[in-house]
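Following up on my earlier thread - several people asked me to post the actual chain instead of describing it. Fair enough. Here it is, all 349 residues.
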Amino acid sequence: MMRTLYALLFLLAQPGVAQETYSDAFGILPADAVGQARASWGGVSTEGEKPAEPPQSVLTFIGPKSMVAGKDIGHAVALVMDRFGNLVSDGIAASFALGPRAMSDEVTHYGIADVQFLPDPNAGTFSGGASVGERQSPRALFRVVASIESLSPELEATASLVPETFSRLATRPMADRFANPIEDGVGAGFILRHEDGTTSVIPATVQEAIAEAHWLVRDVGSGGALTASLADQESASEPVELDPLRAAIKAPVRAWPLADLDAVAMRVGPMTTSAGHMLSDGAIVDFSVVSASGARAASTAWVQDGFADAILPIAPGDGPFAVSVESALGLATTSVQTGLAPDVIRRAE
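Reply from S.P.:
Thanks for posting it. Predicted structure:
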């Protein structure tokens, strides 16, 4: 440790000698490493000090390219070179135009002038540049975007949800604390917490400052409390009702005997909704049958292409049959006799 300290003190006691250097577009070199050929095209004199060349080229860089209004600090840098590509001398005045702002108190240092700035809080795309001496840089672009974290979404009033239809969910127009509208394409969402404890999450996209989604209401058991979300912000909840699904017309029920099984096959459909659609595939349909002699049978089926089929263990000749069909369209009752199977009817036609 002592040896290291003595060596450091010895070096500090020696007279400092600054090495003469030259700089050009390819870097900084010791003076004794610059050959005459390179010096001749690089604007460097090896026979003595040469006066600095005036600025010829100015390149400007501005970042980050996207800044949040009222939050992010921008950084503008100007790289200034003479006609040979050498960095210019220190102390040359530089001015910056940064959107609506102008800054003119900077000077070059090692051929570079830079400034940090708070951009204008109005969102948009702005151009910037630098002027050094009589030279001006090409423009550089930067963006200022709305501050999402400074706003709270608000729901637009939502009509009752109607099953098997597209229901529109939307927010009111959204703007940040500087009145900047949220730009198009920002992701948002709606959360519907149902009364039965389930939750529906509906993705949305901002368009013209409004988050909007068109949701196909299907397999939803109840209404609930609706909220809108944007980033980590969530709106106050609003109650939403679910209208019951209704049948457009009373679906016919057909029955035909299955002699080999001593059973009856039944089909209900087409099951159309008041919205003009078939009841969705996979929807549950419960059949309950009472024969003329009082025998009972029940079965559960699933809808496919608007129809539901069931096989009931009841004597085919014990009709007429009192049939109850319960589905998402409600409860319907009818009385049927056994007839021809649907495929026989189609062949006859």
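Confidence is low (pLDDT under 50) at residues 1-17, 44-49, 345-349. That should answer part of your original question.
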